[in-house]
Amino acid sequence: MDRPGALKLEYLPAAGRSPEWGRGVLGGALFDRVPRDSPAASGGLGFPVAQVSMPVLGDEREMLELWRIGDEVRAGNHGHVRYTCGADVLFGSLSLHEEEMPAAAAGGRSSLYAATGQAYREIFATLAAVGHPHLLRVWNYIPDINGETHGLERYRQFNSARQEALIAGGRAIAGNVPAASALGAAPGGPLVVYFLASRTAPALIENPRQVSAYHYPAQYGPRSPAFSRAAVLRSGDAATLFISGTASIVGHRTLHSGDPVAQTRETLRNIEALLEEAGRTVLGTRLPLDALAYKVYVRDPRDLPPIRAQLTQAIGARASVLYLQADICRRDLAVEIEAVGSRGLRPAA
Q: Which of the residue ranges 56-65, 172-181, 246-255, 336-345 would you say has the lowest mean pLDDT?
């Protein structure tokens, strides 16, 4: 039986689900080119499911990412945000179409800027209303992430809007920021954000091999990305580790441009460094690579076989892995990997 409040992540095909598949689900995401009026988008499932226009790589057409919890839950809405929460953890999601943003909301800036600001304002309002104030992990899916409008790449527009929303909401823009990722969804779709939040503050982890993203130099845009490299949620005698989107970056520079296999190896080195740091500072012991569940974003699907072979060699064939085709925040990155793992905490001496 699951521990009360314990989070469990599953990746499973959307087709052929058993009648019990939705039991104990806090929330989730459905990956494929899904219509806006699907049952999940309309709330017919009883819990929020983010609709992400992002092709699945492999045999399945649609895949579900599900977060289960061993708790009683309650559901609600706040603005565009649909959420479900237990005693300690909340899952929420929202999507905003840029063309629906009022011109005044953009203030002369892009519609993506306006949508991002509104999304984060609504997230913060939801957390305050429900009483789960600590953002733990955020997934951002941005249509045409590497495109340029208003003289600036859209990912950099997103970073500027996110940081300004954090400041306006009285939240930190460095140090005390959640684990996160930002990937490119299909052009023309909505900005999709889903997130986990908690009543208690997570422990935040940085990678000693990398410059913290919130300290990136100005060459990466007018506002730095506001996320931590990893976060740990402690609940009783257990903990869950959330590793942010991780890539072949050392210091603040991309390594191995044009070589997806070498980028995969470097990305795994960064994940191992985070496991070491989390073990040293929070968990009391290091999680092994094969104990994690992975989501792998591949820019060019032709690179999937060598990337998958490299990852399988490192983590084994039995690890839970979801492969998706996505544009990545830097054009010279071929692959990005995020991960989740759980373990019991070592008793204090």
A: 336-345
pLDDT mean over 191-213: 97
Alpha helices in 221-284 (DSSP H): 260-278
Q: Which residue has the tokens 């500027």?
A: 160
R_g of the chain computed on alpha carbons: 19
Q: What is the pLDDT of residues 323-343, one digit of tens each?
A: 999 999 999 999 999 999 998
Active site residue 336: yes
Q: Are the C-beta atoms of residues 110 and 161 closer than 8 Å to each other?
A: no
| Among 279, 282, 283, 261, residue whose Cα is nearest residue 271 | 279
**Cα distance between residue 325 and residue 246, in whole Å:** 15
226: which 2 tokens? 């506001």
Closest by CA position to 93, among listed 143, 157, 137 = 137
Whole-number Å distance between alpha carbons of 185 and 199: 30
The active-site residue, picked from 122, 153, 206, 336, is 336
Query: Beta strand 49-52 with 25-31: parallel, antiparallel or unpaired?
Result: parallel
Two structure tokens written together for 330: 């830097």
Q: What span, in angstroms and rounded, lies between the C-alpha atoms of 43 and 314?
A: 39
Cα dihedral 232, 217, 154, 307 sign: negative
Instruction: Of 37-41, 101-105, 187-191, give the range with the top mean pLDDT.
Output: 187-191
* pLDDT score, position 347: 40
Domains plus CATH for the chain? 7-344 (3.30.1330.40)
pLDDT at 238: 85
- Size of the chain in residues: 349
> With contact defined as beta carbons under 8 Å apart, do 139 and 93 qualify?
no
Q: Is the per-residue pLDDT at 175 higher than 70? A: yes
